[in-house]
Amino acid sequence: MSGKKSTKLTKRKKYSVKNLVTDLKKIGCSPRILDNIGREVVYFEWTQAQHLLGEDHPVTSHLESLLTFMQGGCEKQLVDGELWRAADTPQSALNAAIRGAPAEFLSYQFVRSSDHIHEVLEAAKKERKREIKTFKQIEKGVRREIKADPENPDLWNKLRLLLWILGKHKESSEAFKKAKKLGWDSATSDFVAL
Predict the structure, then answer these.
(1) Is residue 125 a contact partner of residue 33, using CB atoms and an 8 Å limit?
(2) Which long-range contacts does 150-156 make (Cβ < 8 Å, 24+ apart)?
(3) pTM of structure
């Protein structure tokens, strides 16, 4: 969701992993929003699966992988420059995170009540709108900084990250190309937290 239109989230009787991922794609989650939902929903479901199914069960291990992606994995991919192409959207990153997972995992029904999960997702949707508003203001400031120092690769990378979070993936990709051309390297760049 790039802030242009509101997305209605379906209220469900039960949530499965696939339902959660579908709703996350509608929200267009940033790494911070993914982290919150990971803590609020997926962590609990992972601990329940450990107890109910066992630590070695495929559902449990895939929930753990999804949780790892949500709690830092996506952010690391973004900050390290792995998500830089115009096609590298939050939706495609989520697809990659669950690619190859068995149907049993995708159809796994969550233990927690659907009302709770729906409330968490609605709160995430509202937070996403606030986040977009805030990041648009930050984008203006970074563009001013770039105008004053157009050869600074770290500023171009900062713009790339902001644009990605704002859902402007084509512009984000162009900013990344400019940063790389100017010498940006994830190993030597300024630390960025999202």
Answers:
(1) no
(2) 151/182, 152/182, 153/178, 153/179, 153/180, 153/182, 153/183, 153/184, 153/189, 154/179, 154/184, 154/189, 154/190, 156/182, 156/184
(3) 0.90
Say if residues 194 and 29 touch (Cβ distance below 8 Å): no
pLDDT digits (tens, 9 = 90+) for 52-70: 999 999 999 999 999 999 9
Instruction: Classify residue 181 as exposed, middle or buried by CB count within 10 Å of its CB (0-12, 13-18, 19+).
Output: exposed
Whether the CB-CB separation of 41 and 122 falls below 8 Å is answered with no
The token duo for 146 is 């770039």
**3-state class of 109 per DSSP?**
strand
The per-residue pLDDT for range 75-104, each reduced to its tens digit, is 999 999 999 999 999 999 999 999 999 999
2 — pLDDT class (breaks 50, 70, 90): very low
**CA 94 – CA 191 distance, rounded (Å):** 24
